[in-house]
Design brief:
Elements (H helix, E strand, L loop, with lengths): L6 H9 L3 H14 L4 H16 L5 H9 L3 H14 L2
């Protein structure tokens, strides 16, 4: 039920790092309350975070989990530096 979805609930999800769920709640609030500035700001913030990490793929995640040599750490560090530019 969309009426039960609130800004407070979304903020709690976001604080728990459940950003996808928080984003859906913020969108639901905005649909119900088109002038809700708090929801608009939160949606922009969360959408920006999602775009920032679009370059992260499963191959790089697996590499990070399994890396154990200095060369692999350096390679991962270079990859992170490119991601944050």
């Amino acid at each position: 039920m969309d009426e039960n979805k609130t800004i407070t609930m979304a903020a709690i999800y976001e604080a728990q790092n459940l950003k996808k769920e928080a984003l859906e709640i913020y969108k639901s609030v905005l649909k119900r309350e088109p002038h809700n500035e708090e929801a608009k700001i939160a949606i922009r913030r969360l959408m920006g975070e999602r775009k920032k990490f679009q370059g992260v793929d499963s191959e790089m995640r697996d590499f990070f989990i399994k890396m154990d040599t200095e060369i692999e750490f350096n390679e991962f560090e270079r990859w992170l530096a490119k991601l944050w530019k």
